[in-house]
Amino acid sequence: MRIISVIDVENGVVTDINSFAIHEEQLSDDIVEKAEELFKKKVLELNPELDDDIEEIIEDGFYEYENETICGVSLVWSYVD
Length: 81
Fold this sequence. Notes:
Layout: E1 2-10, E2 13-22, H1 28-46, H2 54-60, E3 62-66, E4 70-79
Antiparallel strand pairs: 1-2, 1-4, 3-4
């Protein structure tokens, strides 16, 4: 089974994890799309001006924003037997 997770970090501390399990019998494209949409939403909450660059950020799987705090969002793949 594969798992795709959207992980929020603030000042080096994980503040939220949303994981999506992908079973072989499921349509993985639908699950990946849900995870990518959540990642996109969280990135744009940190910096709404990134809408034009969002596809590249999704490909990178990571975005970090520094203001009063350092916030980041990651899109991470895991594999479980």
